[in-house]
Amino acid sequence: MTEKDVVREGVNEISKNLGDISFEDQTILVTGGAGFLGSWICDVLISQNAKVICVDNLASGLKNNISHLLTQKNFKFISHDASQPICLGEKIDVVMHLASRASPLEFDKYPIEIIKANTFGTMVSLEIAKKNNARFLFTSTSEVYGDAEVVPTPETYNGNVNPIGVRGCYDESKRCGEALCMAYLRQHGVDVRIARIFNTYGPRMRADGVYGRVVPRFINQALKNEAITIFGDGKQTRSFCYVTDQIEGLLRLAWFDGAKGEVVNIGNPTEITILELAEVVRKVTDSNSQLQFNPLPPDDPKRRCPDINKAKEILKWRPKIELEKGLKKTVKWFKLMIQ
Ligand code: UDP
């Protein structure tokens, strides 16, 4: 078994779950299509006989995530910065805008690129949707809620964001992206949908340490029996959604006829502390890594957990993969990657 087989298994699972939706012969533009979530979307769509145009400048995405698709006749890769205008010369049915770095450890190094991807990039993508009369999915984030005072957080909560803090580049540009979507809906009638994505993990998360999110960092550290770096006291919480559940939710939101103009939380509602996460990672990797306590980064939200009642009601979607099961699959993929 290779790491590609682990992904293929997941793609088959998503395709089976989405059996009630037809993607056949539709042309989908996926910005950020070589990234963690974007590449899973490209895989599912290609397996469902859709045509995919993947735009990515490989700033944080990886060619390796899509290399197996490059020979497929329905797949086209364009190396391009999604924040810059582009002429595609093809009729597009659905635009999915995922291009943006998303790791907090990148926020102080690339804040301008992040703001451009979520503002200019969203506008460029919305213009394509407008011109083609296409549907538009914006991948927003739980970060629009900032350090939420209402947890589990429903879509009606307006947020508690520090615009000038180190996370401001991401939080505020995603908020602006959402405002742009609603502006294109109100002024031009574009069929927009906004997904607020909560922490998601799984195969194809970047495994190369420095800028990584908490799950790949802990797995890497545990597999090497190195110290697991807990930021702060580790009592802050997150809710982790396995990638196959996330992708199914995003595609349901983009394809469901009744979701025009809707904003929907997509995530797993099981809230755990970062210390608990470290324990589960140690267990599934059979590691004896010690814990190392480091300073908490500024504006790190204290609690994060989605209220997913809206997704359940309108999309008939809910996550199915429990944390330990998802982590086992992720660890399997990581081990195959580093072999
Ligand atoms: N975190 C940690 N150790 C690490 C990396 C992250 O304790 O090595 C914490 C981080 O402070 C945050 C949580 O894990 O509270 C999730 O961090 P991540 O970078 O995955 O993204 P976030 O949810 O903050 O956007």
Shape: globular
Main β sheet profile = 7 strands, parallel
Strand content: 15-25%
> What's the Cα radius of gyration?
19 Å
- What are the distinct ligands in this entry? uridine-5'-diphosphate
> Architecture, according to CATH?
3-Layer(aba) Sandwich
Cα-to-Cα separation, first versus last residue: 12 Å
CATH topology: Rossmann fold
The percent of residues in helical segments reads: 25-40%
Name the helix and strand elements from N-terminus to C-terminus, one letter apiece: HEHEEEHHEHEEHEEEHEEHEHH
**The CATH homologous superfamily:** NAD(P)-binding Rossmann-like Domain
CATH level 1 name: Alpha Beta
Tally of individual helices: 10
Low-confidence stretches: none
Overall average pLDDT: 97
Q: What does it look like?
A:
- The protein has 339 residues and is α/β, with parallel strands linked by helices.
- It has a single domain, classed as NAD(P)-binding Rossmann-like Domain (Rossmann fold, 3-Layer(aba) Sandwich).
- The chain has 10 helices and 13 strands.
- The longest helix has 21 residues, at 168-188.
- The protein starts with a helix and ends with a helix.
- It binds uridine-5'-diphosphate.
- Uridine-5'-diphosphate binds next to helix 6 and strand 8.
